[in-house]
Each structure stands twice: as structure tokens, then as C-alpha cells.
Amino acid sequence: MSRDDFIRQLEMLLEDVPQEEKQEALSYYQSYFEDAGTENEERILRELESPQKVAATIKADLGMGAGSGMGEYTEHGFTDSRFQDRQEINIRRAPSQEQPDSAAADADGRAYYGEGGSNGRNAYGTEKTPNYQDGFENGSSHDFGNRHENGESPNYQNTYEESRSSYPNGYGNGENADYKDGSHDSYRSSYGEGSASYDETHRNGSGASYEEPYRSGSGASYEEPYREGSHSSYQSGNGASYGSSHRNGSESTYSGNQAMKVVLLIAIAVLTSPVWLSLVGGVFGTVFAIAVAAVCITVSFFMVGGVLFGVGIGQMAAGSLGVGFALSGVGMLILALAVLCTLFCIWVCSKLIPWLCRAVKGLWRGFFSRKEQRI
Amino acid sequence: MVFNTGAALLDAIVLAVVCKEEEGTYGYKITQDVRKAIEVSESTLYPVLRRLQKDGCLEVYDVECGGRNRRYYKITAQGHAQLNLYRSEWVNYSSKITMLFSGGELA
After folding, report:
1. Around B23, how many Cα atoms within 13 Å sit in the side-chain half-sphere?
2. Do A74 and A246 touch, CB atoms closer than 8 A?
3. Structural contact between residues A204 and A159, judged by C-beta atoms closer than 8 angstroms
4. Highest mean pLDDT among A97-101, A313-317, A351-355, B65-69
5. Do A167 and A78 form a contact (C-beta atoms < 8 A)?
């Protein structure tokens, strides 16, 4: 893929983002390539992986495609709207989704930590550092350790609060909702903190955890950005709490959304079939009719030309040279016209039809790649 | 790398890189500078820059360069404040971790 292809595809993929954002992103990458110079073009294209990935990253940061199961989406969790979205998912899905996952960590009250721990471990396990499994206990407790420590140093919290004021409470609350599932008490007892500090620490905790998933965005675990990506990124976060509960949310919305979209798509296709069937039929009918007409005209030219030429020759043989010459001349002209028509038909067949096919294919592909993005 | 670079740290790194250039700097150069410190993919920084811009930590302006406009990023006062906050946070955080790693006792 060349740089121009890349930009073109990116433009297509960003069709549904606000015009301003689209322009910003396109001009950024355009000048990125220009600044890098042609000698780096190939490397950059390789590292960017695909326009789809870049588009997904951009959309993720714009808070588009929330709950659509896009991996990157959550990795950049940063802005308000996104957090609100997430929070909704959390609250709605957490209770029902908590069950299967917490099987790994039986006790309800512990589900929270349990999940987190196991996710984290998975992540480390799958992510090229298997011997981290042990270390991860530290990882997850380090997470809590952090909160704990935050709880103890109010200054830290305050500054943190301030600094994070651009993505407010929503998050902490979302997590709290999770907590109400029964872990509140055990949390408090095991960490021995007042509910006030719990709240604070928790928020900080979420700050910490969203950071983690984000990292994998820049890391190597990007292979399957749209599907598996969402899982692996969450898992790789040792921001256990957030990662796990949210993963459930997005997982379920992902499958739910997909099924719903397929059904919806079929329904729409069936409902609108009279329209598009007649459209397609009309287009194909017209093309076919024109083709048949062109062939008929060509054939008739050949016949008329041939006949006139023959009659002309006959006239010449019969003695009326003038009429004979005139007739055979006109006949030859018409034959020439017929040959031109044939050439034109051949040109149409060899150039126009493949071009049409390509255009249709391009439209089709554009349509589907966009759809995939949304799913 | 074994350790993750979170969003806040990434923000801090980008702010620090942009802060170094008083006249401002541009996307490709920022990426290359950040890469001197940490591994980031080419697509990582655009959203970060855009977000920092929206949050008012960075301002952008176009400079004509070789017959085209190049977008420059420059740190704002708010960006400076944010960066200072990140710096102190980092000192706090990293010193504690370092202390833990070196086997010392946390105060």
C-alpha cells in the first residue's frame, strides 16, 4: 500500500467522524508522511499497520463506537463522554456478568479482586513474559497498595483530583456501582480504610487502571484490534478492577450488538427489497438493452452494407455503371461504419464493463469495511 | 518493554517533549523524540496530541514549510501547569518505587 492509498482509505474510514476531526487527522498523517520523507514511508506504513487501526484509534479517542467492542476504544479512555459511556456499561452489565467471571474467585465479596487478579495474570501470561505470573500478585496488590497509599496521603489525592478534573466523578461512581455488589465490606475490612478514603482511593484507583489498558494501545498486543484486542487490552491492565468489570460490559455488548446488527441488516434488506431490486433490475436491464441494441445496429449495418455493395456490383455487371458505383460506394461506407461499431462494442466490453465491476466492488468493499468498523 | 506506559505518563512525556521546543514542534518530530525514551507506535501520538490540544495544554499553529503548511504544537500555560503536576507526581511515584526496589523502607 502506498501512502496515498493509506490516506485515501483513512479518509473513507473516517467518513462518520465529524468533519473537523477528520480533516485534522488526515492533515496530521499527511504531513507526518511528508515530514518523514519518502525514505521512511515504508517503515511508517508498516508501523501504522493499517488505516483501519489508525481510524479505530482516532475514533476511540473521540468516544465513537462506545460499547461496540472495539479494543482500542477503551485503551484511550480519557475524555468525559467515554467515561460516562463506560460507566453505563458497567452499571448495566456488571451484576449479570459478574457471575461467570467471579467463578474464578468464588466469594462475592472478593469477586472484584479475584477477577482483577486473574485477568491480570492472564494478561501477563499471554503477553510474552510468562514468568511474570508470580510477579503479578505483586502487580495486583500493587494496585491496591497504590490506593492504600493514596488514602494515606491526602495531599496526593487532592492534587490528583484537581489534575483529573477534566474526567470527573463518573468513573469513580461507576466503579462504586460495581462495588455495591457486595465487595464493599470486605474491601473495607481487608484494607481498613474509611469509606471517605475508600471513595478517593477508588477514584485514584480507576485513574491507575485506565492507564494500564491504555498502554497496550502503544504496545505490541494490537494484533486483533477489533475483536480480541478488546480483551487482551483489558487483561493486560493490572488495573484489575476496572479492566475486568468493563471487559464484561464490552464483551456482552459486542456479541449482542453484532447479533442485533445482523438481524437489523437482514430486516432492512428485506424491507427495502422492492426498492433496490427494481433499481438493480433497472440498471442491469438498461445496460443489457443498450448492449443488445448496439449489437443489433452493428449487425444491421453489416447486412445493409453487404446488400448494397452486392446490389451495386450487380448493377455494374448489368451495365448501369453509375448506379452500380454509387450503390457499392454507399455499401462500403456502411460496412466501414459497421466495423467501427464492432470496434466500439469490443472497447466497451473490454474497458467499460471491468471498470463498472471494479466500481461496484469498491462500493461494496467500502460499505462492508465501514460496517465492520461499527460492529 | 515490561512496564506499561499509561495515558497520564504518555501525556506527561509528550508535554515534556513539546515543552523543550520553545518555538514549538511538529508531529513527526514529537514522535521521534518520544521514541528516544519509550517505544510507541506511529499511531499512538495523534490522539494524545489532539486530546492535549482540546484540553488546552497544547496550542497549534501552522507554519509554511516547503510550500505546504506544517502544523506546530506549542505548550500553553495550562500545559506547563499540567506538566509540573506530572513532574511532581512522577518524583513522588518513582522515588517510592525505587525505594521499594532497593529494599529500603517507605517513610
Report:
1. 3
2. yes
3. no
4. A313-317
5. yes
Give yes or no for a contact between B72 and B60, defined as CB atoms under 8 angstroms apart: yes
Residues of chain A in contact with residue B55, where contact means CB-CB under 8 angstroms, are 166
- Which one-letter DSSP state was computed for residue B24? -
Residues of B in contact with A27 (CB under 8 A): 71
Choose between A18 and A176: higher pLDDT: A18
Region of B74 please: left (phi>0), alpha (psi -120 to 50) or beta.
beta
Among the residue ranges A76-80, A263-267, A297-301, B15-19, the one predicted with the least confidence is A76-80
- The Cβ of residue A365 has, within 10 Å, a number of other Cβ atoms equal to 11
Cα separations in angstroms, A262 against A229, A259, A357, A363: 21, 5, 26, 19
- Record the cell numbers describing residue A368, joined without a space: 462492508
Q: Name residue, grid cell 471498470.
A: A355
Q: Of A67, A110, A374, A57, give the one whose Cα is nearest residue A246.
A: A67
Q: Name the closest residue on chain A to residue B44, using Cα atoms.
A: A218
| A327 touches B at CB < 8 Å | no
